[in-house]
Write a structure and sequence with these properties.
Chain A contains 13 helices and 12 strands. With 388 residues, chain A is of the alpha/beta class. The first copy, chain A, has 2 domains: 142 residues, Aspartate Aminotransferase, domain 1 (Alpha-Beta Complex), CATH 3.90.1150; 216 residues, 3-Layer(aba) Sandwich (Aspartate Aminotransferase, domain 2). In chain A, the strands form 3 sheets. Chain A has a 7-stranded mixed β-sheet, with helices on both faces. A 3-stranded antiparallel β-sheet of chain A has the order 9-12-11, with helices on one face. In chain A, strands 1-10 form a two-stranded parallel ribbon. In chain A, helix 2 runs parallel beside helix 12 and helix 3 crosses helix 10.
């Protein structure tokens, strides 16, 4: 049975380039080198203690059976209250579906919105899995190049220009991975208008909400109450491995989504759901806000340091924990350059190619998911290499 | 924005009929009625204590970050050892991908094996989500009617007869949901031959392995080393809400599957993975084997009781925790009949329609996921209704 061929879809799903870098980084570490990790899209702070405690209590209570497909009612309610508190948005709990990470929310949303051959408009660069989900579903993506001139985000103008008869909707991410930029309120409203006028659907990835520095990001629900929102307990709430997220959907979509969730997931992880109830408690929020301040300091240090070395950052990233730096002063091939940085500086970063095609070979994503001392060390090592 | 239409795929995904019954059952309970639950596909025993303890230890150790997409190496290794112990099968750990429930394994396997329009051969009746996964992926299913004459399973003959140029492979389930039957070894080998001769792929759902009574089921890997196997920690291991399963794949498929898993899931739930390491410990297995004996007693009681009342069970179910009973002596519409049983007897069961079309309106699935006393009570109430 040696020579198998699998589906075309499987062949077209791309791997993350950074995985090979990560493997090499671990090898270097096993050889005794001290590698600074700035490649990972995961907070280094771990699960907040009150959340971890709540998980253990749930286990002791035997709360480990299946739950409703859309999540336990008390968590949906708690998330609804969070929208009231943070954004002043009144949201019935029924409009919130708890999912297996934002990954689960993406699969549900795209399954609902696209038929085979239909397209979602996405930014390039952007979170790479978005287009892979569409590919798996036999739908497609319209990748719209974005750059510093448009704050690395889609605009009403670019959305309108790329809309065609097969377009089902638009996915925005704000703050965005990898660029950390936030869509301005007026632009968000203008994009929502364009999408509504064309009878499409607007999906906004708000995964990095709570991780904006010096201001709070607006939820699209404050502007367009019928938008779809993707969110997660992974980033602001520090619960990556618990695999829990949520999808806010318009009321008329909830039954379809629940039906799909029943079939595709049965239910989200149960202990994670009970743990997440503690994520909204004041003690936890206090911890999360301290972490947010730490992230802000790291961003400021990293942005200043990279600019000083000679990386171009025409726009200061406003959120998430990424800096998407233009390295064209040093290279026109950041894929090779990332390997050089790893080998020569023992600093692991992610090449732009992992996030799209548009000027990807000029860019590098730095994650500031490591502390100030380590960021200083990484900057110093890279300076030695490229400046001398 | 009132009148939305969603994707065709969303419209075609079916809900479980039993959900409305379950809702009504809960309403009856809130009114003070004592409802016997025999509709649920979930063991009533809860998580084994050593597994729950291991989860708490993992949380205390801070093991709550993302893991590799295919799972932590030590769990993949532990599962590989399990195949050696239980089945005498040598399986490199690399061929095992840990997934978010068997649901995650199904999505990966079908994504790998089918392109748009391609078909998997499935039994009717069968686990309903199988065909919904295929629909979501724009692939399709060939539903092959099975009945008592063929042990409610696909046969080499029926597979060959239904194979056409768009067929990518076959999904068997052994023991099967809803019928509890096991494919005989010779038939399994013959089916594997038919599939291999046509250049297709064989996927076997072994989710209910460990829950066969009086004998151990053969894994397809003992017969066809290159088959795909779906399994789960939910059933035998009693870990439903932890959402953890696995997929065994041929070596040549592992890279494709890992790449898809990275994109679709990031990683399986972390605490669940560390907890699952304890699932293979002798203390846990001892608990699980006691539960297995309890399930056997329940099956024997339920099968005898239903036959005595007048339900037809031409084949004794050999595994899982389901009895798929022919109720044609009482009704030609088990959907209504299940509602009557709920209203009149306060016993919740699942209509055959949830599992397919073939003679579905004659059949009812009884789950023996409740203890002997409750099964006695349910039998007595149903007897009163239908026999008097």
């Amino acid at each position: 049975m040696g020579d198998k061929s699998w589906s075309q879809r499987a062949a077209e799903i791309e791997s993350f380039k950074v995985m090979d870098l990560l493997k090499r980084a671990r090898q270097l570490e096993s050889e005794g080198y001290d590698v600074v990790h700035m490649e990972v899209g995961e907070p280094d702070f771990g699960t907040p203690a009150p959340v971890a405690e709540a998980a253990k209590v749930a286990i002791d209570k035997g709360l480990t059976q299946y739950t409703p497909a859309a999540g336990i009612p008390e968590l949906r309610q708690r998330i609804a209250e969070f929208y009231k508190q943070r954004y002043g948005v009144d949201l019935p709990a029924e409009r919130i579906l708890v999912t297996a990470g934002a990954s689960g929310a993406l699969l549900l949303a795209f399954s609902l919105l696209t038929d085979a051959g239909q397209k979602m408009i996405l930014s390039d660069p952007g979170y790479p899995c978005n287009r892979q989900f569409l590919r798996v579903l036999e739908a497609a993506s319209t990748l719209v190049p974005v750059d510093a001139s448009g704050n690395y985000q889609l605009t009403a103008e670019s959305v309108a220009a790329h809309w065609d008869q097969d377009t089902a909707g638009v996915l925005l991410a704000s703050p965005a991975n990898p660029t950390g930029t936030v869509v301005a309120d007026e632009e968000l409203a203008a994009i929502a208008d364009v999408v509504a006028n064309r009878g499409g659907q607007l999906v906004v990835d708000e995964l990095y909400h709570g991780l904006t520095y010096g201001f709070d990001a607006t939820s699209v629900l404050q502007i367009q109450p019928d938008a779809f929102v993707l969110n997660s307990f992974s980033k602001y709430f520090g619960m990556t491995g618990w695999r829990l997220g949520w999808l806010v959907a318009p009321e008329g979509a909830v039954h379809e989504l629940e039906r799909m969730a029943q079939n595709l997931f049965i239910s989200p992880p149960t202990v994670s759901q009970y743990a997440a109830l503690a994520a909204f408690e004041p003690d936890t929020i206090a911890i999360l806000e301290q972490r947010r301040e730490a992230f802000r300091q790291r961003r400021d240090l990293l942005v200043a340091g990279l600019r000083d070395i000679g990386f171009e950052l025409p726009v200061t990233p406003q959120g998430a924990f990424y800096v998407y730096a233009d390295a064209s002063r040093f290279t026109d091939n950041t894929f090779d350059f990332c390997w050089d940085i790893l080998e020569d500086c023992k600093v692991a970063v992610t090449p732009g190619l992992d996030f799209g095609h548009h000027h990807a070979s000029r860019h590098i994503r730095f994650s500031y998911t490591t502390d100030l001392d380590r960021i200083e060390l990484a900057l110093e090592r890279i300076r030695q290499k490229v400046v001398g």
